[in-house]
Specification:
Length: 243
């Protein structure tokens, strides 16, 4: 990532002294699915602007510009970014001290709540598992339905922001337990991005766990579901290092 993406706008000496910066996570997955998307498009990854959405219990979104990460949603720790199973993702940092004072607990304890008791679980007061929320929402549970809308809203904002940051976008890729299986999430996200030139293919999207193009032929932006394979990338990288 370039400095403009990985540096936080806090006093620079904290970067020098403590290495506080955006690190990002799921790099093996973002690398794998962006290259697979390029293959499926018959193009070199170096010629493409791709937003990769790894959505599972832990989730991150990356802007992959010409095969390199321009930006990514997880930060100094995996807490930042989109709404996850039990992690809040982005929030106003002032909430940490405010909640600490209200509950009479330390900052570390608040951060623990943000990591382990927030996200889908905290907002729905029900479950960290998307399948439970989806089932509950269908049965009329309002909190579950709103929580799903919150998650989708945040994903749309990130994809839109990254399309802007790359000054264009050729492809959007979904992976991870939610990305590969939650048909409704992909549908809501892609319908919310029609302004970018995403011509969503409802029939093709009706699939789980296989590599498929889910936009119509001729769509300005191509979207894919691509099952990730982090183990394969780790094995390949290990082989390269061992050589
Ligand atoms: P991961 O951490 O990548 O294993 O993803 C776990 C998340 O994927 C959980 O929120 C699951 O509810 C979700 N998930 C797994 N299978 C399905 C499915 N068939 N439909 C919807 N969500 C699913």
């Amino acid at each position: 990532m370039p400095e403009k993406s990985y540096l936080y706008a806090i006093p620079y000496e904290y970067y020098e002294d403590y290495k506080i910066r955006r690190y990002g996570f799921h790099g093996t997955s973002h690398g794998f699915i962006s290259k697979q998307a390029a293959k499926m498009m018959g193009k070199a990854v170096e010629d493409l602007k791709i937003v990769t959405c790894h959505l599972g219990n832990g989730s991150s979104i990356a802007a992959v510009d010409g095969g390199k990460s321009l930006d990514t949603s997880m930060g100094f720790t995996p807490l930042e970014g989109v709404i996850m199973g039990t992690r809040s993702g982005d929030l106003d940092p002032a909430i940490v001290s405010f909640l600490g004072e209200q509950l009479n607990i330390s900052a570390a304890e608040v951060v623990n709540i943000l990591n382990k008791k927030s996200g889908l679980k905290g907002a729905s007061q029900l479950s960290s598992d998307f399948r439970d929320l989806s089932e509950a929402a269908e049965k009329g549970n309002k909190r579950a339905a709103v929580t799903i809308e919150m998650m989708v809203h945040r994903i749309i904002k990130y994809v839109g922001a990254y399309a802007a940051a790359m000054n264009g976008i050729d492809a959007i890729v979904f992976a991870g337990g939610i990305g590969e299986n939650a048909i409704i999430v992909r549908e809501k996200v892609l319908k919310g991005l029609s302004f970018l030139g995403v011509d969503f293919d409802e029939a093709a999207n009706n699939c789980r766990g296989k590599a498929v193009k889910i936009t119509k032929d001729g769509s300005k932006v191509t979207a894919f579901v691509i099952p990730t394979n982090e183990e394969l990338v780790i094995a390949r990288d290990t082989m390269e290092l061992a050589k």
